[in-house]
Amino acid sequence: MIVVDNLRKSFPISYGIIPNIKYRGRIPRREILHGISFTVKRGELFGLLGPNGAGKTTLLKLLCTLTTPDAGTITVDGIDATKHPIAVKRRIGLCSSEERSFYFRLTARENLEFFGSLAGLSGDYLRKRIEHVAEVVDLTDTLETKFSGFSSGMRQRLTMARAMLSDAPILYLDEPTRAVDPVHAEQIRRLIREELVDRQGKTVILATNLLDEAWALCDRLAIMRRGTIAALGPPKELDASYARLLRYQITVDKSDEALLQRVRAVPGVTTVATVDVPGGVNVEVEIEPTNERSVTELMRAVSDNGVTVRSFTFDEPRPMEVFTDITQAGDGDE
Amino acid sequence: MSSIAPALPAPSQNSFRATLAKAGAIYKRDRRIATSYDMAFIIQWLQIVVQVLGFFYMSKLVPPHGRFPGFPYWLINLGFSRFQMTALQSFQTAIRGDQMLGTLECVLVTPTSLATVVMSPGLWGFTLTAVQVLLYIVLGMILGVDFSHTNFLTLFVFVVLTIACMSPLGVMAASTIMTFKQNAPTQFVAGSAAQLLGGVLFPVALLPVPLQVVSWLLPITHSLNGVRAAIMKGASLADPTVGADAIWLVCATAVLMPLSLFIFSRAVNRARRDGTLGHY
Fold it and tell me: For chain B, what are the domain ranges?
């Protein structure tokens, strides 16, 4: 289990010798994370989302012990990450989004051998693990190719292979499908959800900018905004809490102005539109989610008119809308 | 893609063996990278041949006399002073290389101690240097230098002490890189100091007394004194002059080694605090 408690982090506003002289060794710092707290349960796939500059990468680096917090604590399976970084590093695998994170002059196998050895693996076990993870990310045929000859997508898949190499119980994945072609990206998504989390019970923190990916894969999402967690919960709960409008599509055999008038009169309905479809009409309705009886009223309004209802479907809220609502909330006040 | 097979049982390792294995992995990485640049790798050997031949013919102009024994003096100094340059270069080159390649964060996210990360790059560097020094010796033998008096125990001790005493200076240079993301001018400063004040090109006794005092403060002076005594005179460690040089190096190592690791650890912690580990 990962427990992050009241985490604060700041960075100097500038670096180098001259700023150090200018500020007499006390360069002002800008706070990036403002007291973040959350818990990730064992075996959970936890998504980390947010616009650029929200603090996702900083948070991941803190979790990996690559940077240290100003205040607050991170504990991994009960171990304080600041006090015992080596013990925490034994439990984690990192898939970074940084393309330049391998030795260009070495082959994929030599790179994996090197990082596997530093992770404490050796001998036959290391060789078998390399074969395993290369097969999993479909790089078996290119293990003897120098990293410099890899495409961006292959580099990202090799990064994923490195993260899995030590079979660590916790994985931090920073945009694991970035630059990966659609087929392999989908395979990586299934690998994360079905194999690593559901079957092997690993704990995964997935930072991504792909909203559909996060909504489809993650058990819970933390949406960051300006160094804070603006929303936290399962995707369905976020949809319910933050979706501004619920969308329904009702296909009827015929439509007239009287029907549309009754639909418009349903409490909470904001928009009604019709589209002719083969054999009937599609009525698209948007309802504010505040009135619990709106849907019942809507169904009654449609069916009372003697029309035949062929289908009544609910459109899932679009992740983009929920994300935008959360990350831009209050911007007008600032 | 296929599914992952059940996790294989990881072999258990005690921490000393694990550290050795990690140091070995870093050695293998450095060897593979160095030899992948095949042209540069070959040229550095040719440079040694050219350098030795150059000094051999120059020595014809400077006949041996009381303070200067001629070509063997240059040959031994040039060869063995390479250990100093390797110590000063290899650690900072490795850290700088990892910064530039973007691999430093990925190395530091593994459960590997800072001491292992910073010290292990010396393994390949010193191994290569040892073989290069052998080339100096072989070329010297071909050119008529007499190595028959060599006291190998004394020579071995001084090589070890040279590496142990110089490496902390290289680690401190690596700390500079970690903090300021720029190469420290150690190669220029130490190279110049060694040639001018350390007795590489001419005996320290030729310097004015104040500079001889500065020379005494440099590890390279004591290192080369011991190496020359071991090779040219067959001196043992019981020899008072040689013993004094060895004790000087031991004391310097005892002070510099923990100090350099402390400074490097501070530099890494500062980079962690400032979030600049991945900067270059």
Answer: 21-274
